[in-house]
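Long-time lurker. I teach an intro course on protein structure, and each term I like to show students one example going from raw sequence to a predicted 3D structure in token notation. This year I'd like something fresh instead of my usual example. Would anyone be willing to generate the tokens for the chain below so I can use it in lecture? Attribution to the forum is fine with me.
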Amino acid sequence: MITYDDDVRLAHVLADSVERVTMTRFRSESLVVDTKPDLTPVTDADRDAEELMRGQLKRTRPRDAVQGEEFGTTGHGARRWIIDPIDGTKNYVRGLPVWATLIGLVDGDEPVMGLVSAPALGRRWWAARGTGAWTGRNLFSAKRIQVSQVSRIEDASMSYASLGGWRERDRLEAFLQLMDDCWRTRAYGDFWSYMLVAEGAVDLAAEPSLAEYDMAALVPIVTEAGGRFTSLDGSAAPWGGNAVATNGLLHDEVLRRLG
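-- Reply from a regular --
Happy to contribute to a lecture. Here you go:
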């Protein structure tokens, strides 16, 4: 069986390097914020962090392709690193600590390794195929995590990002009904919703519109923690443009309601 232990260690090295960029620029008065064509914000920290990761991957994994939010795809290897330098840029520019660097590895079409680094929260989460999901500050202070065992929607805690996307895709009524039927709902948003699912603190999370770089690092963490992560139609993530992550026990019911 192919193992990805070396890739996990490299992902931590990448996260260490990026953290020095993102934390230095976080809440800086000189942070430069631009608007991309899709009207979402991007900062000089986003670009600098992605360039840093690309440079390190070019040196250490020259045969692998790299796909990033800011600079697209380079290379043509079967293995592809999918990176998002700052997931939660809107939080980042407003000084909120809920943002993270996402580092995923896809082998063929399968997400096999993921690391989420949220330095302003002092947390990381990571997983590789067949080795479980973990959280901690680094590899040497790690705790294994697992999804919850909640089996009924009426007992479930749900996290989401916003309601706007559901309205745009004519799924708002179904989503609001699911919210009403859940025991508790909170908009933790972005990467954090899915890490809370992996930890068992939240039972389900869903978003109607996401890019591959938003999800690739998250999929192995949720699934190695014992959960399921698919698109709304039940197809494999992160390729469907949207996401449903659950503890597994609730997954079919959530897909039936939203898919």
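Some talking points for your students: The chain has nine helices and 15 strands. The longest helix spans residues 5-25.
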